[in-house]
Amino acid sequence: MSLMRLPLLALLLALSPAALAGTDEDARAQNAVRVLTDIQAIPESAIPEKLFDEAHAIVVVPDSIKAGLVIGGRRGHGLLSVKRDDGTWSNPAFVTMTGGSIGFQAGVPSADIVLVFRSERGLDSIVNGKFTLGADAGVAAGPVGRNAAAATDGQLKAEIWSWSRARGLFAGVAIDGAVLSIDDRANEAVYGRDTTPRMVFEDRYSQRPSNAIVSFRDALEEATAAARAARAGDSDNAPARPAAPASTPAPAAGTAVTEPVAAPTTVQAPQPGAFEPVENPATIEPLPPAQ
Q1: Which DSSP state fits 211?
Q2: Please, which residues bridge with residue 110 across strands?
Q3: 131: Cα within 13 Å, side-chain hemisphere
Q4: Phi/psi at 175 (nearest 5 deg)?
Q5: Three-state SS for 88?
Q6: Buried b (16+ CB within 10 A) or exposed e, 149-158
Q7: How many Å separate Cα 175 from the centre of its chain?
Q8: Which helix (H) or strand (E) holds 139?
Q9: Contact in structure between 83 and 160 (CB atoms under 8 Å)
Q10: 254 in a domain, yes or no?
Q11: Residue 72: inside a domain, yes or no?
């Protein structure tokens, strides 16, 4: 081997898959941030503020690809972040979504998918293995437009809500039978060898994630802060209810109720005036003597 080929060999070794680990994951994270930003930028399709504020986890699968006729359904690679007890979001773990019946229109080759978990149920199943949408937990089409505004009034009852964007428009979509599973290869490429999803969520990893990965968490933080601020503003602008008039306490049982009696009115008699002098007094005649 000539000496001139040694630098080339060293370059090839440096560009091995281990050295390039994380490049695909960075692109996946950047696409997920784009999807999250786009859906929140359109009020008619945005995730309702109440739902975003109270969410326990969010999955974003950008550019899911329509699978063949034999397999059916779709396949995509996405990111999963969970909300911690202090209200902050974790760095994302990487997941895959395969198969299932996804309510897209026929002929759509690819679509972006957003899943919002309202409860912790199902997260353990994802972390520990696989999770089937519609079987392990019910999935409902996310509200949009006027329905999204109405849903902020406590009508969000489903455990998982889902949206998709196909042909440029976001819409609520029903997903049944799709399987979410952890992408261990991607997680190890980003966070280090033998890193589990729980270690990612708790920031216990040996390899620091890139800025592209962290930007997904930051996007969730910003969207949640905006949702909380909007909800607080709606509460402050709500019209105050008029105070109820004070009511007279009801009498105790067995107590006779008497009507108030008005005080009697005293009528004063006219007072006599002062004596007045008589100008011509009457003449008094003496009585005749007795006989």
Answers
A1: H
A2: 65
A3: 26
A4: -125, 120
A5: coil
A6: eebbeeebeb
A7: 21
A8: strand 139-141
A9: no
A10: no
A11: yes
Asked if the structure places residue 9 within a domain, the reply is no
3-state secondary structure of 128: helix
Q: Is 11 helix (H, G, I), strand (E, B) or coil?
A: helix
Q: Given the structure tokens 């899943």, which residue do they identify?
A: 115
- Specify the higher pLDDT residue, 289 or 105: 289
Q: Tally the domains of the chain.
A: 1
Question: In degrees to the nearest 10, what's the CA dihedral of 44, 45, 46, 49?
Answer: 70
Quick: pLDDT tens for 8-61. 444 444 444 444 456 899 999 999 999 999 988 887 778 888 888 889 999 999
Counting Cα atoms < 13 Å in the Cβ hemisphere of 284 gives 3
10 within domain boundaries = no
CB atoms within 10 A of CB 114: 26
Q: Which residue has better confidence, 111 or 35?
A: 35
**Could you report the per-residue pLDDT of 135-146, keeping only the tens digit for each?**
767 788 887 765
Token code pair at residue 188: 């190890």
Please answer whether residues 159 and 147 qualify as being in contact, where contact means their C-beta atoms are separated by less than 8 angstroms.
no
Pairing relationship of beta strands 160-166 and 139-141 according to DSSP bridges = parallel
Question: What distance in Å separates the CA atoms of residue 288 and residue 291, rounded to the nearest whole number?
Answer: 9
Residue with tokens 């019910």: 138
